[in-house]
Amino acid sequence: MSLTIPHAAPAAPRTSTRLLHGLVGGGVPDPGLRNHLERWGELHHQPHRLIDQLEASGLVGHGGAWFPVAAKWRAVAGASRRRPVVVANGAEGEPASRKDALLLAQAPHLVLDGLALAASALGAQQAIVYVPASSMPTVEVAVAERRASRLDPLAIELAESPETFIAGQESAVVSALAGRRGAVPSFAGLTTIRERGVGGRPTLVQNVETLAHVALLARFGADWFRGVGTPQNPGTMLLTVSRPGGPMVVEAALGSSLRAAAGLGDDDLAHTSAVLLGGYGGAWVSPQVFAELPVAEKAARRAGATLGAGVIVPLPLDVCPLAEMADVVRYMEGQGAGQCGPCVHGLAELADNMDRLAFGGRGGPRVDSILEICTLVEGRGACRHPDGVARFVRSGLGVFADEIASHQRRGPCPRTRAARLLPVTGRTETRRLVSRA
Amino acid sequence: MSRRSLELVLDPVACDGRGVCAEMLPERIELDRWGFPVIDDGAIAPALLEHAERAVRSCPRQALHLVERTC
């Protein structure tokens, strides 16, 4: 296959529409390599400069942990004399998140550019793209296009991620690539995945959106990267916003207004009982708190929440928040790896209690006894699954205190019989794609 | 100046809640309502070291470790 490379290098996008540049608006998206190179230009590997550029840019990981990318790459690079393995993580187990699937469907070459850059910067022996079956066809085509054009310093391999909630957790990724179910223990004091992961080699597991940012950063530089956002929170991030028509992926400048990015006006918030931030391992905040938040993890943390991987779910007043929570906690119980006692027992008890709170008769479990179970599961798993569920429950018990009092007084509300809003299995199609400055 | 200390670390995957450790070292380990150990954070005092080592050796699942930390 031969490619015609454009004569002039394309200009860097100047607005906060970066990853979604050229994807927004009508028309059939073209995920092909030719279109990618026309839009973004050729990629020049400068492996010795890239980590310094990453550091200067302030790029953080967008899989949910917000860890500085340069520090992570340095840890992998310095872990041992063995050549590392780099993994593009597109598992996106969070049912309410769509941004990784969207990138893989519409801009797979940005992700693969980032993976190839990581491989060359770290001198990797192996580069693997780890995605669910639904993303596999586009990624397969993209990888084949790159091989035919000899684009990358090494052949990118493909691995299918299971469709489970924890599939994207770093330890579960390494475990899945080794052919085992669940999460490998990565407890403090022994070894970490960065030191010993896939095949016992130092391993970089990086979210696909993060790698797409790396692809643009390598082309346009750290100063360009910092040209959007604030000094403390530079760049942009993808958010998935649940809307009545279906999930919507938007790209927003960090530090900008979260409610503006999500496109939620006063009228929307007036019909919202609370907003779930960060997905099923995240936290509920009141519409008032939500309205004041910027797109920044530190601010979300101060409000007792997390932006995580950018999931925003406004809960309309006409659904029962306790019924929604009960179903999510039951789902999360089933999504654990089933490896750690406190998580197995604790999540089952939490699910039972939330069921009784939402659907049981008058009385029901006491809030402080549910909080006690949260305390018993926090920090006691090999992965962060139980911690996320505890945060989800704790925050909901606070924000929905009036609903709880009402259920305890009168029994289940009529809305518990309506259909649920929060998806607890499978995937629905992303119906709209918009970007906001 | 750095100081070295020993801490107890549990492998939650290996642990299946036999509870032997809590019998050996009740000063630092108690069992939760499901029988799984809850370990106090922090360095093991020299006076408790022998008991801690015994707890580590006695775990039928080899789930408990004494790990040296530099702090």
Description:
The complex is a heterodimer of chains A (437) and B (71). Chain A has 437 residues and is an alpha/beta fold. Among the domains of chain A are: 33-229, Rossmann fold (3-Layer(aba) Sandwich); 321-417, NADH-ubiquinone oxidoreductase 51kDa subunit, iron-sulphur binding domain (de novo design (two linked rop proteins)). Chain A has helices spanning 33-40, 47-57, 69-77, 99-106, 108-122, 136-148, 170-177, 208-225, 258-262, 266-270, 287-292, 297-302, 321-335, 341-359, 367-377, 385-399, 401-410, and strands at residues 85-89, 126-132, 156-161, 203-207, 236-243, 246-253, 272-277, 283-285, 311-316, 432-433. In chain A, strand 5 and strand 6 form a beta hairpin. Chain B is an alpha+beta fold and 71 residues long. Chain B has two helices and four strands. Chain B has helices spanning 20-24, 49-58; strands at 4-10, 29-31, 37-39, 64-70. In chain B, the strands form two sheets. A two-stranded antiparallel ribbon of chain B has the order 1-4. In chain B, a hairpin with a 5-residue loop joins strand 2 and strand 3. The model of chain B has no long low-confidence stretch (mean pLDDT 91). The interface between A and B is medium-sized, with 18 and 19 residues.
Please report which band the strand proportion of chain B falls in: under 5%, 5-15%, 15-25%, 25-35%, 35-45% or over 45%.
25-35%
Fraction of residues in helix of chain B: 10-25%
Unreliable spans of chain A are: 426-437
**Strand sequence of the main sheet of chain B, in spatial order?**
1-4
| Class by SSE composition of chain A | alpha/beta
Shape of chain B: globular
Task: Give the SSE string of chain A.
Answer: HHHEHHEHEHEHEEHHEEHHEHHHHHE
Features:
heterodimer; A: 437 residues; alpha/beta; Rossmann fold; de novo design (two linked rop proteins); four-stranded parallel beta sheet; 42% helix; disordered C terminus; B: 71 residues; alpha+beta; two-stranded antiparallel ribbon; 28% strand
